[in-house]
Amino acid sequence: MTDLHEFEVLVPMINASYKVSFPKSTTIQTIITEVAKNVGSSPQYDRQISLDAFGLFEATNTPVNNTTPSVPTDSQLSDYLSQKKFSFEPIITPVKIRYPDKTERELTFPSHLTVSNLVEAVQPDNGNYDARLFATTTAGAAARGSVGIKMNPHRPLRTYRLKLGDVVALVPSVTNTGIWRSVAGNQQVAVIVSMPQPISVTKAMKLPANSPISRVKKDFLRKAYLSVPAYSYGLYARLDGNTEDMLMESMALNTVPLPVPIRLELKLKPYKARRWFGVDPSQLPMTNDDGIEIPEVLVILRDLLDINDGFRTEGIFRKAGSEIEMRVIKKKLEEDGGHISTKDVHSVATLIKRWFKELPNRLLAGVDTAAVVADPNLKTNLASLVSPFYAKLLDWLFRLCRTISAAYETSKMDPKNLAIVWGPAIVPDIGPVKLGDPISSVDFASTQHGVEIVEANLRSGAPGPSAPVEEELPPPLRRSMTMSDANLRGMVPPPRPTAPPPMTRMNSTITRGASTRTRASTIRGRGRGTASPPAASC
């Protein structure tokens, strides 16, 4: 029994399948002959179709994209023991081609040939043509203006199950023509993206023809003022007129086999509820983010920062977020999986920090940070000290911080500031400090080491502009109240004095440490009887 290999043979032409087993030394031709006998005895078999030109194809989960040729008939089953399914289909497909001048010609092609290969082989000139299928029941309507079914250029011919009398017509491509050419131009493509309920919004855009699908998503979200993570959504299109396919992120607009304007729908990707925080990160669903395999949750949170211009927000990662807002976002991530929308970039940034802090083992756990700090080469070569997976997480984190540091003019977060925030998050926790413990009993060495390590890596990776080491303080602000100030306060301005007024409480200066500011600006910045809301811990 161990010499037998059991597998399944799919027969699409009669919508059936057979469970069979053959000795591993059996030739593919023998299997084809036996399967043909079973198909020939089936009542669903059309006697007009000859089984002589049938073969076995390796079955896949996406048969419409399977362009591999049939299995060689002289090979043995032992060469395909990993294959559990085969498909019994014609290896040659006869096709009746109708040209633009209405002439017709009957030709045969290998069944695994794609529609685009067929068009290239038979098109009358170097123009752009689409293939449209006119089934037997509608072939006569073609002359009366029927447009037929547009064939997907990436699908193999055998997946269309062409019958006797079916016609494949070549029609000039409508891509980037007519009114939409005047809208988008020759180097751009017009796109209409819609989003279903509960958001229900549609936007028309014109984008460079080589724009990837990932850019289409982000441009649409910004144009629609939606603060949602681009990664959680996919752009879907009906490439064959029936089934909906999600387009790949790297796919360029000019390769989408649809007429212009290209109509796409943005929808949530399939989602499975799971815990994202405080679990082994290597067991989480991964995605490739600019060449780094990392957990999907980090890309989702990063996208929320990006869509809200969080990389340039002042104090990003330094300022704490709202506990209430973070609970809402985390619940959406781990339970609901629905539309996650927020404009609170500080809550999103704090969640990223907490994800790293709540790892079962911190990124530099088990690393002798003192030895790393003492060796300048080790500081910037952490990959040799941690696991390959943790090395990827560190690489991703440092890239994110460099992006923020490059926007220092608005974010005010240079490598030093970011290191102060992130250093304690990647080294082992020092544990709770009890009230009354002398400060000398608390070991802050590893935290300081983490700060030095992060700063060294951010500066070594071309982080962009950074803050000057010593910033010159501006002179004290001294100004008298103007008419516009009085109007804003609902006050009548005092009469202009004939001599310089003496120093008063309103325009006196207060110096605290290295900063200088006016008491008047401090008073105006605080409302009477109000208190600042408590900030969440980072």
Characteristic key phrases:
15 helices; Ubiquitin-like (UB roll); 4 domains; 538 residues; 5-stranded mixed β-sheet; elongated; single chain
CATH third-tier fold name of the largest domain: Phosphatidylinositol 3-kinase, Chain A
**Major sheet:** 5 strands, mixed
How many domains? The number is: 4
Q: How many strand units?
A: 18
Q: How are the strands of the biggest sheet laid out side by side?
A: 6-5-9-7-8
Return the CATH class of the largest domain. Mainly Alpha
Category from helices, strands and their pairing: alpha+beta
CATH homolog superfamily of the largest domain: Rho GTPase activation protein
Helix content: 25-40%
